[in-house]
Amino acid sequence: MKTITLSGTLLLLLTLVFPFQSCTKTGPTDLTQSCIIPKPLSVSADGEAFRLTKRTNIVAPDGDTALVRVGEYLAGLLKPATGYPFPVEKAVHKGSIVLVVSENDAEYGTEGYELDITRKQVTITAGTPAGVFHGIQTLRQILPPEIEESSVQPGPWILPTGIVTDKPEYGYRGAMLDVSRHFFHVDEVKRFIDLIALYKLNFLHLHLSDDQGWRIEIKSWPKLTEIGGKTEVGGGEGGFYTQEQYSDLVQYAMNRFITIVPEIDMPGHTNAALASYAELNCDGKARDLYTGTNVGFSTLCTGKEIVYKFIDDVVGELASLTPGPYIHIGGDESHATPMEDYIPFENRVQQIVRKHGKKVIGWDEIANATLAPNTTVHYWAEKENALKGVKQGAKVLMSPANRTYLDMQYDSTTALGLHWAGYIEVDTAYRWDPAHLVEGIGRDDIIGIEAPLWSETITDIKDIEYMVFPRIIALAEVGWTPAKLRSWDDFRSRLACQGTRLTVMDVNFYRSPRINWSTGKEDTGTGK
Ligand code: IFG
Prior knowledge:
Structural class: alpha/beta
CATH architecture of the largest domain: Alpha-Beta Barrel
CATH superfamily of the largest domain: Glycosidases
Number of helices: 15
Bound molecules: ligand IFG
Mean pLDDT: 93
Distance between the termini: 17 Å
Strand order of the largest sheet: 10-9-8-15-14-13-12-11
Number of strands: 15
């Protein structure tokens, strides 16, 4: 990271001249000491300060609707703790926060930004509104953690001056929520979306169907939710998203520049569908609903035409509800499907998804089939499968279970989770490079990383927060920041001061003993 540190004399002088600049209650004056995660490409400081006041406005210069919406989002972040109005306007004045999308800024790509903080103005410049949104998350993290409070705080609200330039290493930085084993309500999913947006993740994969539950309304096959949505692991009431609720989640995520990837897992992991419609079973008998946690016992009847009509109907309705480019077809642990049936099934299902205008992602077992163009192999357990995919020219989405599976226990004392892939502490989640993990899978083969949370043992948002935070923060940096700029010692100190922010946001995060978590709210957010 390129840094310009201030000489002692100059800093002393500034402290005398600008008494409120001191690094005490007013926050840091050295931008390079802010604990931004993911770590930006470069941060330079010039030791002065910008102050939010009740006169601060947010400027979308030409009133571009997408930028106005991003401006309103920023205003919504800043208003509660400051009590200031933060109007979103066109007129720039001293003290404005200016949002600029300039198409010719190819240097920032589709998600990068430049955040320029001077004494008189803050400017976020990007090539797209998504880049501006990511600049806003950085701006948010430079402000004291108290900015996350939902009631008015004394402040002051100081931003140290300098320039951040930034863009991500990988274009796919995702999380997965298994809403099938245990169902999570719309508000819980929205909370999750809010939290992962803070760390610039941009994909949310929803595991919508499995043996224990079918969670998305399909109008042409209503019993999938009427029957298949009725329960969950442990026998609870389960639930499902109506198409209206799913669309609400899609829009909520999109407003935070997060793309939903829906998964219909098949031909295995299908007991909920097999319990809902007898005709999907080879023996024509509907299965009982299942509330246990075994895997690999179910299969659609791959030899029956009605199964492909079912898939065509389901994929068609889902595709029409999903603006994102991907539909995930699962394909994992199909132990009840003979490989000679599995391969033609996967070949045919890929064509159905492509017919509906979407690209396919499938767990790495699908690499045993013939991969259609633009099908992505989702590496989770068998690197041999992922390598088969690379050999077919497919790209890989990296979710190595022993680094990214958030349902793995932190250690043997963790009350929630499993440990079949090993224990995953924060450093285990951080100290790896996707492009050098598996020989034969290089940087150009990888579209990005994703952190799945399977929910066999997870029942509500507080469980989710405990297993996801802080490991998702580590993985967010693995996906955003080039490996050559990352180091565990540097990360762990920045993560430490995120602890105050997470506490203020009431996130039920795991206080890993590997991190010297800052305590209380006196923390200046410097990460020292
Ligand atoms: N593997 C299964 C998941 C879940 C997981 C729990 C995949 C692709 C073990 N499949 O991960 O359904 O049961 O850790």
